[in-house]
Write a structure and sequence with these properties.
3 helices; mainly beta; two-stranded antiparallel sheet; 11 strands; 7-stranded antiparallel beta sheet
C-alpha cells in the first residue's frame, strides 16, 4: 500500500515548506455563487441574475502532538520515555501565515500554496486560523493541539516566458512575425488561456 504524501504550506514568493504533522482527515471546499433576484410583475418567482464570481474557500482540520512515544536511554542504559516538547513549535509556523509580513513590500499576509501530493494544490491566503490546545505538561506547556484553518482562493496570475509576470496590471508584449501563442506560454498545452487573455 502506497504511503500518502504529506501536506504542506508554502509562501508563493519563496521560502521552505511548512509540513503538517498529520494529514487532515477531511478537507471541505465551498464555493458561493451570488445571484440577484429581480422581481417581475405578475410572476411568483423572480428572475435570477448572476452578479460576479466568488472565490472558493477550503477548510481543513489539523492535529499536532509533540508527546513522543520514542524511547531514549538514561545513564545506566535503561530505556525511558523522551520528554514531550512544546507543540507550538508546529502550530506557530502556520499561524505566522495569517500575519502581515515584516519588511514586505505589501502590507498584508502572504499569498501561499496549500499542497497535498501532486493533485491538490490551492493558491490562497489565510482567511482564519484557530488553534485549541488539548493536552499540557505539568508546567503548563501545551503538547497536543487541534487547528482549524480556512483558506481563501486567490486569482491565478499568468506566467509568461522571459520573466513577464504582472499583478494587477496589463503587460504589452510586441511579438516578432514568427512568434506564436505557444511561444508565450510556460506550458505549451495552455495556449488557449493566453489567446483568450489577448
Amino acid at each position: 500500500m502506497a504511503t500518502l504524501a504529506k501536506a504542506y504550506f508554502k509562501k508563493v514568493d519563496g521560502g521552505s515548506e511548512i509540513w503538517v504533522q498529520f494529514n487532515p482527515a477531511e478537507v471541505a471546499i465551498k464555493k458561493t455563487v451570488p445571484w440577484s433576484a429581480k422581481p417581475k410583475n405578475g410572476k411568483d418567482v423572480p428572475q435570477q441574475q448572476f452578479t460576479a464570481g466568488q472565490a472558493r474557500t477550503m477548510t481543513l482540520k489539523l492535529e499536532f502532538d509533540s508527546s513522543s512515544t520514542e524511547l531514549g536511554f538514561s545513564g545506566n542504559n535503561k530505556p525511558k520515555k523522551k520528554e514531550a516538547e512544546d507543540v507550538r513549535g508546529f502550530t506557530d509556523e502556520i499561524f505566522q501565515l495569517a500575519n502581515v509580513e515584516e519588511g514586505g513590500s505589501k502590507k498584508e499576509p502572504p499569498t501561499i500554496w496549500f499542497a497535498w501530493g501532486e493533485k491538490m494544490q490551492f493558491k490562497c491566503v489565510m482567511k482564519s486560523c484557530n488553534v485549541t490546545f488539548t493536552k499540557f505538561k505539568s508546567d503548563g506547556i501545551p503538547i497536543r493541539a487541534n487547528m482549524q484553518v480556512s483558506l481563501l482562493e486567490v486569482e491565478d496570475k499568468w506566467d509568461y516566458k522571459d520573466g513577464i509576470h504582472r499583478d494587477g496590471s496589463t503587460e504589452i508584449f510586441v511579438a516578432s512575425g514568427r512568434t506564436t501563442v505557444h511561444d508565450l506560454s510556460v506550458d505549451p498545452s495552455d495556449w488557449r488561456t493566453i489567446a483568450d487573455a489577448n
